[in-house]
């Protein structure tokens, strides 16, 4: 069993990187907001005062998990490894998912509390898991939500493993389940093998502010589940929101997370008072993330300046009062007739604009390839190779090289490979939103 101390509440800092100078008539302002939390993970090794954490692990037990049998065996072993990684005192439950959701452990409509006894009981229950039935992921998520709501928890997290497509409920039913669970718990989603739908798995993780990945070989599940659980055990504050306040006349163009992965938060805004809105960021431990904020300000004369936006980190008050601000940063606009100042692109903004485009063109290129549009696929994936090389995103460049033959990375000249392993194409699609941090 991993020896994790309970995380303390982290301290947050906000740093804003931008070129605040606009030419006369200029209106669009972009900034990269780096949010860093420290002292909230397990790295300090000291028990703190964070509230209780709860984890529900949802294991696909549909009939396809027996083909090959290594998938079901790998799932049992991976879930057992995740159970071993649970910190003492963590609330947890195991769910077997088919066309219905079934509580595997503790099985009483609630959560167990992790200790040596309950971990052993949970692993014994896992040994009895067998494959059979269909797939209706929305039912798994709704059961996880009910279980996580059965205890007073600060951190609520799900882990979902599937090997197939969500064939026994409609897309609308899955979407309704995701809408019902959004903001109630975070969820990491994993696809094992190559018979699952990438957009389904990444859509689940996106809606529930978790991570998505492929584990093409079931033998890799245990290591992946252990790493996921270690990450979940390091969380100290849940339900953190990025609050954006803008003056009268300022229009918000978009708010995106851009590191460690691209996630558009623009449509997830909830109003938080006059000219203020909150964008969800999920749970935090010891980590740093980057956000791209873009706003449009009213025109102003040369020499004028204004506050274009105020960015704050907001967390719930443990005592039940108003949400508390954790840190804040300012986005400014200054009009100048100095051409060099107003046309300089901030390196952080330029880097993450490229990373967001990289994610987009990979998706567009793979979609074109699947539809038989070879010219469109070649153009988009060539642009992706060019962007990955220019930004130093070596991991994505390596994944792209399994789908295209790179003639010249600098110019984006590529040829589509005649044969591509399904696992390689799915890995590229699943990991297309992962970014590299800008070098400062």
Cα separation of the termini: 38 Å
**Biggest sheet: strands, sense, closure?**
7 strands, mixed
Count the E strands: 20
Structural class comes to alpha+beta
- Tell me which oligomeric state these chains represent: single chain
Counting DSSP H or I runs of 4 or more residues, the number of helices is 11
Per the principal axes of the C-alpha atoms, what is the gross shape?
globular
What Rg do the Cα atoms give? Answer: 23 Å
Helix content estimate: 25-40%
Low-confidence segments, given as residue ranges, are: 42-50
* Strand residue content: 25-35%
Mean pLDDT rating: 94
Describe the fold and architecture:
- By secondary structure, the chain is an alpha+beta fold.
- Helices cover 32% and strands 30% of the residues.
- It contains eleven helices and 20 strands.
- The chain has helices spanning 69-85, 116-127, 137-148, 171-181, 198-207, 221-233, 339-343, 347-371, 374-391, 394-400, 422-430; strands at 11-17, 21-22, 28-38, 53-60, 91-97, 101-105, 112-113, 155-162, 186-192, 212-215, 237-245, 251-259, 263-264, 270-271, 276-284, 287-296, 305-315, 324-335, 404-408, 413-416.
- Strands 4, 5, 6, 7, 8, 9 and 10 form a seven-stranded mixed sheet that branches.
- Strand 12 and strand 13 (263-264) form a beta hairpin.
- Helix 3 (137-148) runs parallel beside helix 4 (171-181), helix 8 (347-371) packs antiparallel against helix 9 and helix 9 packs antiparallel against helix 10.
- The longest helix has 25 residues, at 347-371.
- It is globular.
- Residues 42-50 have low confidence and may be disordered.
């Amino acid at each position: 069993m991993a020896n994790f101390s309970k995380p303390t509440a982290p301290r947050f800092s906000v740093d804003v990187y931008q070129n605040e100078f606009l030419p006369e008539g200029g209106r669009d302002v972009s900034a990269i907001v780096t949010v860093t939390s420290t002292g909230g993970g397990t790295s300090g090794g000291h028990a703190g005062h964070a509230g209780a954490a709860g984890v529900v692990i949802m294991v696909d037990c549909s009939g396809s998990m027996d083909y090959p049998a290594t998938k079901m065996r790998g799932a049992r072993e991976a879930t057992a490894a995740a159970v071993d990684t649970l910190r003492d005192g963590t609330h947890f439950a195991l769910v077997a998912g088919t066309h219905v959701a079934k509580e595997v452990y503790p099985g009483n409509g609630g959560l167990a509390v992790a200790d040596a006894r309950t971990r052993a009981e949970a692993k014994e229950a896992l040994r009895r898991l067998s494959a059979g039935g269909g797939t209706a992921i929305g039912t798994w998520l709704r059961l996880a939500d009910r279980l996580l709501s059965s205890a007073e928890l600060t951190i609520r997290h799900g882990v979902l493993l599937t090997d197939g497509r969500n064939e026994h409920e409609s897309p609308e039913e899955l979407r309704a389940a995701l809408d019902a669970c959004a903001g109630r718990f975070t969820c990491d989603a994993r696809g094992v093998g190559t018979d699952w739908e990438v957009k389904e798995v990444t859509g689940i993780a996106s809606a529930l502010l978790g991570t998505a990945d492929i584990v093409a070989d079931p033998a890799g599940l245990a290591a992946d589940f252990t790493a996921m659980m270690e990450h979940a055990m390091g969380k100290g504050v849940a339900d953190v929101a990025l609050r954006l306040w803008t003056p009268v006349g300022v229009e918000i163009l978009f708010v995106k997370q851009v590191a460690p992965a691209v996630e558009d938060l623009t449509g997830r805004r909830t109003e938080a008072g006059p000219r203020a809105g909150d964008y969800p960021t999920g749970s935090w431990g010891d980590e740093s993330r980057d956000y791209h904020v873009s706003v449009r300000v009213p025109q102003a004369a040369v020499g004028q300046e204004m506050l274009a936006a105020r960015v704050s980190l907001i967390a719930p008050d443990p005592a039940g009062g108003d949400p508390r601000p954790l840190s804040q940063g300012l986005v400014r606009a200054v009009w100048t007739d100095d051409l060099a100042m107003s046309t300089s692109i901030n390196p952080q903004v330029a880097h993450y604009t490229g990373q967001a485009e990289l994610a987009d063109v990979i998706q567009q290129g793979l979609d074109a390839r699947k539809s038989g549009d070879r010219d469109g696929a070649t153009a988009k994936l060539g642009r992706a190779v060019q962007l990955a090389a220019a930004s130093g995103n070596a991991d994505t460049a390596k994944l792209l090289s399994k789908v295209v033959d790179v003639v010249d990375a600098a110019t984006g000249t590529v040829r589509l490979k005649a044969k591509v392993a399904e696992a390689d194409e799915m890995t590229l699609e699943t990991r297309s939103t992962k970014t590299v941090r800008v070098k400062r």
